Structures are given as C-alpha cells and as structure tokens.
Amino acid sequence: MPEKELPFLTVFARYRPAPELLPALEGWLVASAVVESSTRVMDAKLRCPEPPPESLLQAVGEAVRAAYGLNGLRLTPLFPDPVEEAPPIEETAPPPEQEALPPVEEVPVQEEVPQETEEERLFRQTREMRRKAMKQALEHHEKEAGFRVKRIYGPRQIKKAPIPMNTLELNMGTVTVEGDVFAVEHKELTKRNAWVISFDITDYTSSIRVNKFMPGDEGAPIVQGVKKGMRLRIAGRLNLNRFDNDMVLEPLVIETAEKPVKTDDAPEKRVELHLHTRMSPMDALTDTADVVKRAI
C-alpha cells in the first residue's frame, strides 16, 4: 500500500495504455492498493478529478489485472464530499402599511462580477481539456473495445488456441490456425453448381492455403465473407491437394479474429538503422569503409 497518493501510471508501471487513454488517466491518483495474498485479488482506491465512466474503469482494470497476473482487480474511485447547500432564507413578513411616500426613482445597480484569477482560469481550462480528452478517449475506446468475434462459416465456436503455421504437418489431422488473408482465389463451377473456395493465410511464421470444394450454396458465406486483409481464426483438417500436390487446410469453422497491436515495451527505446553497401546482394554504391569512418 503506498504511503501517499501516487500517480496511477507510476504505481502500475507495467500497464501500457493506448495513447488516446493517457489524457484521461494522467489525473488519476492511487490512494491505496491492497492485494489479498490467498486469492491474488487487489482492491485499489483511486482519486479522480472527474467521475470516470464505468466502461473505462472496467477496461483499464482488466488490462492492469492481465499485466500483473492478478485473479481480480477492483478499482474504486473516490471523490470529495459534496458541499452542503445553505438553507433557503425565509422571507420575512412585510411591515405594516404606513403613510405613502413619494416614489423614488430606482437606479439600476450593476452587480460586481468577481474577476477570475490566473490560477482559476488555468484550472478551468485544464478541467475542460481533461473532460474533452476523456470523452474522446472513451468514444475511441468503445469503438476499439467493441470488437466481437463473427463466425463466417461452421456450426460451432472455435475453442482451441491456434498453433504456429511453421509447425503444421500432414499427420496432425484437425488443427486451429490464425493469421492474415493475403490472397483470395475462389472459383465458381457454374455447370456443377458449386464453388471451389481458395484463399491463402499467413501468421508470418509460414503460410497455408485454405481450400475446399463446396456444392450448391454451401460456399456462399466464405465467398461473401472472406476478404483480403482480414484476420481469421480457422479450425480445419489438413489434407494433401492432389492437383497441386501440396498440403492444404480444409475449413470446418472460420471466425474473424482481432489483429494484435504491436507495442514497444522496452524500457529504453531504440532506433534500428538499415544500410545497403557494395557488399550487399542488392544494388548499392556506398563504400563500407566510408560508412564506418562516418559513424566514428
């Protein structure tokens, strides 16, 4: 438990939020954080400048829980106690009627507007900027977090985790893979009223062709639903294509999958340089010795 309130992103340094969430999280402070050792469940109380949306709390809590390997994480926001309103002033009874006095011309009184100090102005602008940034981050997060698996083909949901494509062997039978579609070559057999669905998928360790003969309208969901650039998870049976004499995957279930976001988690960032010289297999005119001398 921290002895004093610390920034949220300092206490949970392993958590790497998306850039659009940073403005909403910068004002969060951790008032306390307690982990139950037997259940590995953490209770954390937060001091927030604005009431955070419940969806944002849940999304951030799930990400922090996963980053620290916790079984559960409860984030409880704290806010200042509401200021009690002053009781209404009771109107006093009008005095008894007296002798009428001549009317006095009323002079409009201009109420003095308190001047806003520089500190108050900066605080107000910061609060408005934070509220706007939080709204934009929440809208973006809801769009990003709104990914839902869509089943394109097959009778059931895929339960098994995908395996790398460079480990596939013909004797494995039924397998699950996941990757990006980089080529689509479906063929319609008009005379036979059938389709030969065919597309290539890669997980960047290797690639495999998804291929199957489908009579009637059986292949319509794949023809209409699978497009180049999509990321798919496929459960299927490995077979040998007798026309190409190559291993192919006969699909049983096809689902959409969420594309992973590449992150740089290295504590010390770096830049990698690439250079072609006369020693490279590609065309280049740069002399290696000149480059080394220049670097020194």
Q: Any chance you could write out the topology, listing elements then pairs?
A:
Layout: E1 6-7, H1 8-11, H2 22-25, E2 29-36, E3 41-47, H3 54-68, E4 72-78, H4 118-144, E5 151-153, E6 174-184, E7 187-189, E8 194-202, E9 207-215, H5 220-225, E10 231-241, E11 246-256, H6 288-295
Parallel strand pairs: 3-4, 9-11
Antiparallel strand pairs: 1-2, 2-3, 5-11, 6-8, 6-10, 7-8, 8-9, 10-11
Structural class: alpha+beta
Order of helices and strands: EHHEEHEHEEEEEHEEH
Low-confidence stretches: none
Instruction: Give the N-to-C terminal Cα separation.
Output: 49 Å
Largest sheet: 5 strands, mixed, barrel
Mean pLDDT: 82
Task: Calculate Rg over CA atoms.
Answer: 33 Å
Strand arrangement in the largest pleated sheet: 6-8-9-11-10
Strand content: 25-35%
Number of helices: 6
What helical percentage do the residues reach?
Answer: 10-25%
What is the 3D shape?
extended
How many beta-strand elements?
11
Protein model, in words:
This protein is an alpha+beta fold. Helices cover 22% and strands 27% of the residues. It has helices at 8-11, 22-25, 54-68, 118-144, 220-225, 288-295; strands at 6-7, 29-36, 41-47, 72-78, 151-153, 174-184, 187-189, 194-202, 207-215, 231-241, 246-256. A five-stranded mixed β-barrel has the order 6-8-9-11-10. Helix 3 links the parallel strand 3 (41-47) and strand 4. The mean pLDDT is 82.
